[in-house]
Amino acid sequence: xxxxxxxxxxxxxxxxxxxxxxxxxxxxxxxxxxxxxxxxxxxxxxxxxxxxxxxxxxxxxxxxxxxxxxxxxxxxxxxxxxxxxxxxxxxxxxxxxxxxxxxxxxxxxxxxxxxxxxxxxxxxxxxxxxxxxxxxxxxxxxxxxxxxxxxxxxxxxxxxxxxxxxxxxxxxxxxxxxxxxxxxxxxxxxxxxxxxxxxxxxxxxxxxxxxxxxxxxxxxxxxxxxxxxxxxxxxxxxxxxxxxxxxxxxxxxxxxxxxxxxxxxxxxxxxxxxxxxxxxxxxxxxxxxx
Length: 290
Known about the structure:
This protein is of the alpha/beta class and 290 residues long. The chain has two domains: 2-96 and 275-287, Rossmann fold (3-Layer(aba) Sandwich); 101-272, Glycogen Phosphorylase B (Rossmann fold), CATH 3.40.50.2000. The chain has helices at residues 2-10, 25-31, 46-49, 52-61, 73-83, 101-105, 128-139, 155-164, 179-188, 203-211, 241-253, 255-272, 275-287; strands spanning 14-18, 37-42, 67-70, 91-94, 112-119, 145-149, 171-175, 189-194, 215-218, 234-236. The strands form two sheets. Strands 7-6-5-8-9-10 form a six-stranded parallel beta sheet, sandwiched between helices. The longest helix is centred in the C-terminal third of the chain and has 18 residues, at 255-272. The radius of gyration is 21 Å and the shape is elongated. It starts with a helix and ends with a helix.
């Protein structure tokens, strides 16, 4: 296999592979003579780890893995709970995702008080349906626009749902957007409304924090580790359009509160989740014997 040959020829001491979805690949590489230490990086979300397919793939992979890196503490806890027997003698580290904070902090754009935004794949792991219902509630009292960056399998379903709710004229499905476009969007939106069912360390939330965009988000694992309710944003029960609408309206109506959240969120992301911070943590791991 070309991959095994390439790995052996590099002379690298360690091989970093992302996700357990390629579980079959780990024993194959070992059988083909790859002796480098292998690191599996687990991105989540938590509910994905519990699926039958992912469970089987991890059972294949973990006996051949030397180290596991999870992008959030709750994922590390879940991995240990599910696969503890297979992890004996193996280190499990937590290294969150990181972002280029400067791209988002220095992007062009000015806050538009009538624009809400969400960035994320249009997939079952997110919860755009609840967001559309919340947006319909908000439109009863004020003119707004909802800009959705991202594409996916549910796009036609969500477009149909927006039509059923009578809000199609106020919702923009932007499709896939490059990083610079996302940064400009987050610099322009009045509130970042992140409705989801579960996450690892969501890059979109980190990007909104760096851009200084006030955040309302679902209170689910992966998000609550970033957004501290009443400190760096507002958390709402997942799947609750009334709570999402109420929290969003609060930030729209209280700009001083929104600004306070944004300043603290920007400080947190710069101190803990920049690429520079995470690169140092990865460097320490890669030069260690773990």
